[in-house]
Amino acid sequence: MDREKLYRLLRLGIEKGASDIHFQVGNLPLYRFNGNLVELRYKVLEASDTEAIARLLLEGDPRQEDMAFNEVDLAYELPDEGRFRVNISRQRRNFNIVLRVIPLQIKTFDELNLPGILRDIATLRRGYVLVTGATGMGKSTTLAALINEVNRLRKCKIITVEDPIEFVFSHEKSIITQREIGTDTAGFPDALRAALRQDPDVIMVGEMRDLETVDTSLKAAETGHLVFSTIHTSDVASTINRLVSFFPTEEQANVRARLADNIQAIVSLRLLVNKRDDGRVPAVEILRATRSIQECIRDPQKTNELNDYISRGKNEKMQTFDQHLLDLLRANKIAVETALGAASNPADFQTKLSLEGEVEVEEQSEKPMEPLEIDSDGRF
Q1: Can you tell me the distance from the alpha carbon of 74 to that of 244, in angstroms, rounded to the nearest whole number?
Q2: Matching CATH topology for 3-103 and 117-319?
Q3: Considering Cα of 167, then 172, then 173, then 176, what sign does the dihedral take?
Q4: DSSP characters for 309-342?
Q5: What is the domain partition of the chain in residue ranges?
C-alpha cells in the first residue's frame, strides 16, 4: 500500500460522503454510509497493507519509529480536501485502522437540519453547554457549528482543547486557539487550568471523560466563562446522572448544586435515516435552564422528572426526543418505523401516532447498498 493508493481510498470516502473508513486485515476496505457499512471491491487487505497505512498516517510522529503502541488517536489531513480523526489499534497483532471523515467546511445549523434554538444557545455569555449522544450521532459536528456561530457573532477569545483536533476554525470575529492533547498539552485538566490564565471568553472541551475534567470545566463556568463540551450519554437525564457519577458519593450533592447553577443547555442527538433512505436527519432533545429544571438537577429524587418539564417547556424552546420525532414525521422527513425505533417511550409514542391517525406501521424491506467498485486500472 503506497501513498497514492491510500490517498485514492481516502478521497473516495470524501467524495461519496462516507462518515467512516475501515481498514482491517482479512477484509475489503469498508465505508460507512448513513449508518451502513459498504465494501469496496478493491482487494482483501493483508497485514503488510494495514501496517503501511498506519505508518503513512503516523508519518512525522515519533510513535512511528518503533510502532510499539497498542492504540493511538490522531488527526490526519489531505490538504484542501478533507480531514480525518484516526484511531489505530492492534487486533490479533495486526493493525486495525478506522478513520472518521471530517469535512473541511463547518456546516451551519440549517445545513445540519438542527433546530434554530441552537442560535440562541450560541449567544450565551456564561455557563455550561453540553452536546450529548452515542458515538456517530453528530456531537462533534454540532459542537463545531455552535463554536463557529460564536465565532461569526462575537468578538471574543475562544480556546478549544481536543483529542485530537477535528474541525479547524478560521478566525472571523473571534480569535481562536486550538490545543491538541498529546501534542500541545498533556491532558484536558492541565489544558483547562492553563486556559483560565489565557483570558478566554469561551472554552470548548472535546469530551467530559473524568472527574478532574468535569470539575475543572465547572470551575471555568463558575468563574464567568462559557464552556462547551460533549459527553457520551443518550439523553438529558442520563447526562446529569453520568456527570454526578464521576464524583465520590460524599461530593455528589455539592456537584448537583454546581451543575444546577451552571448548566445553561443540554442538546442530545440521535441521527436517523431520512424518509428517502439517502441521508440522515437529527432528532434533538433540548433542555434549557429554568427554576424547575434546576430543582430537578439538585434533587436526585426529581431527576427522573426532567423529561416531563422539558415536554412542557415549549415556551422556553425545549423539546423531548419524542416531540421532535413527531415534528419530523409531520414534516415527512422520516418514516414511521424509524420514529418508533428511536422513540424514548415507544408505547406512548404509538398512542400519540394513533391519535394523529398513524395506526399502522408499514414494514419496509432493507435494501443493502451495492459494493463500491473501482475500474480495472485501479481508478475509483
Answers
A1: 29
A2: no
A3: positive
A4: HHHT-GGGT-B-HHHHHHHHHHTT-S-HHHHHHH
A5: 3-103, 117-319
pTM of the model: 0.90
Residue that the C-alpha cell 459542537 belongs to: 143
Instruction: Write the pLDDT tens digit of every residue in 295-350.
Output: 999 999 999 999 999 999 999 999 999 999 999 999 999 999 999 999 999 999 99
19 vs 210: CA distance, rounded Å = 27
Distance between CA atoms of residues 89 and 338, nearest Å: 33
CATH fold of the domain at 3-103: Beta-Lactamase (3.30.450)
CB atoms within 10 A of CB 45: 23
**Positions of E strands within 212-279:** 226-231, 263-273
> Does residue 164 have a cis peptide bond before it, meaning omega lies within 30 degrees of 0?
yes
**374-to-49, 119, 204 alpha-carbon distances in Å:** 18, 43, 41
Lowest mean pLDDT across 63-72, 287-296, 313-322, 353-362: 353-362
Q: Which fold has domain 117-319?
A: Rossmann fold (3.40.50)
C-alpha cell at 347: 408505547
